[in-house]
């Protein structure tokens, strides 16, 4: 048994509750977006009903909104272990990555190179590829090993050289769940003074993160993947952030982090984000919020890994099923991608929605380089089961029953 009180935790998610004769769906699509915790909903409602405002005014709701942004930065700083002024908000991870890429233009000169990966979501590829195209820089790809679904880090020294200006790598794949040894990548990138961008969108919901310890330059994530609303967050090391020449309105603030936050932010989503962080904090123990958040994340991880062990061993013995998962010894999030012979991914997910009321996603999940390389596109990509802390062993067992039934009726006809 894990130390997470799952039934209590589930009670914090209105979307998981029965109402009248309506039974809720079983959500296995955490990597696409988790359900929202009550604290996040309460935070958003309280901000909206308590009187909304824009920043920098003399009146109470405006002062309150200034404070809300400060509190949002502090909460994120405790979740990720960075300084509050290193936290900037934006529409989503993708939009933040594009605006950071545009701000990095003056760092580049001819002959520079950018290193991205074959495994990543394209949100951590195309902003840097676009920057490279604008600046005439060369793009190099860190290869995916098509048998183990891990990045070929043995090529790091060859790939990251004195010419490398920026390295963008994902902490964890939103398809296979592979957790990359980013410390190794950062260490090599720092030997040649390259800027390191980490896509932590799929990592933050599953692992405790320490920005200071990682010592990367940019870390990006999205609150709708960790029980909050649709808002993106960028953490940028102050030393780099100060130097970023962002595209901004002339009279808008020059200082970090405000200078990256073009226009009016989604204040209600920031209130929701604080609520989502409070939800994680309440799962943990410790003297400081950082300690409680780390402990809460460890409990989430422990519970998810328990379900993962079961689902992993089940999926590995389903005849004909191809599981795109790294071998034992490689750390993996509770995210599973598979294909079934001769069956389109959408057929599987529609069947589960209809017969088992399960939300299971299919497609390339924007990890399109990996999808192309592994040849899954003709079958409509992968079927992806993504576990969240509110999933239970019973739900996993029900999925297993469903898959056996699906295979009996559809595959072994
Ligand atoms: C690993 C990963 N990176 C980036 C993104 C893009 O995030 P956003 O929707 O906030 O732009 C996603 C979204 O699914 C993702 O899973």
UniProtKB/TrEMBL annotation:
InterPro entries: Aminotrans_V_dom, Cys_dSase-rel, PyrdxlP-dep_Trfase, PyrdxlP-dep_Trfase_major, PyrdxlP-dep_Trfase_small
Keyword tags: Pyridoxal phosphate
Coiled coil regions in record: none
Aminotransferase class V domain boundaries: 26-398
Database matches in NCBIfam families: am_tr_V_VC1184 (TIGR01976)
Name of this protein: Cysteine desulfurase family protein (TIGR01976 family)
Organism: Pontibacter virosus
